[in-house]
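Protocol step 4 of 5: obtain the predicted structure for the target chain.
Materials: sequence only (see below). No template structures provided, no constraints applied. The aim of this step is simply to have a reference model before the mutagenesis design in step 5. Sequence pasted as it appears in the construct record:
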Amino acid sequence: MLRTLAVLSMAALVGAVATMSRAASDAPAPGEVQKMEAALPAKAQVQPAKPRKVLVFSLARIYVHPTTAMGVKTFEALGKKTGAWETVASDDPQMFAADKLAAFDAVVFNNTSGDCFDDPTLQKNLLDFVKGGKGFVGIHGAADTFHDWKEYGEMLGGRFNGHPWRVAAVKIDDPKSPLNAAFDGGFKIMEEIYTFKEPFSRQTNHVLLSMDWPASKLGGGNRTDNDYALAWCRPYGQGRVFYSAFGNDASTYSNPLILKHWCDGIQYAIGDLKADATPGK
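Step 4 output (structure tokens):
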């Protein structure tokens, strides 16, 4: 049975200046924070094996999403409420210096965009961090980041290819995955629906959620196969990657099912929540 998860949206803001970021500015309204806090899961799906620390990185150099600051608040609150991780929030690229990055179990790219940093050493540090057994989480705009850095796209598993729709019916591609434990069936969502291009492939990603194309009754897509993934996980070296295309709209951040889905995805990336990430399934 289809359920409407979100019904409200916020207008997108364009960052015309390439160096603009919104990691700490434009704090969300208190009422939005209260709604988010009321929707948080009571506990984590699994208890952390040890104290965990997550870097929430929110630098946007091209497109600035209006919910970036809300994302910071949300991931901080998720970790604190469930006890699953401690959050450090930053928009400083120097957090990817090897000695600083070593303190974290996972990195969350929170609605990042553009070339957040072009220092090849910092870029290599991020790849080595994940390949070496740590975690990477991409939220929404993370797929619109580092357009010319091939290895980043390969790690993430796909690149932004437009957002032609504002609503979609969503199907659960892997109902048995603990990363989909929040959902008991397909649903409808009001969101900025991303589409993806290479290197996205079901042969390299384990797709968790995707658009139910017949039920959505939409046109104007940019894939001949009408295969529009919305969340996936994948191995990367010894590490783990989780991506969610949701995160543009304010209502998403007070949606209890999406918040649990994100919490589970971060726990997977950290390494505490075990899940099948076999590509091609």
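Step 4 remarks: Residues 1-25 have pLDDT under 50 and may be disordered. The longest strand covers residues 165-172.
Proceed to step 5.
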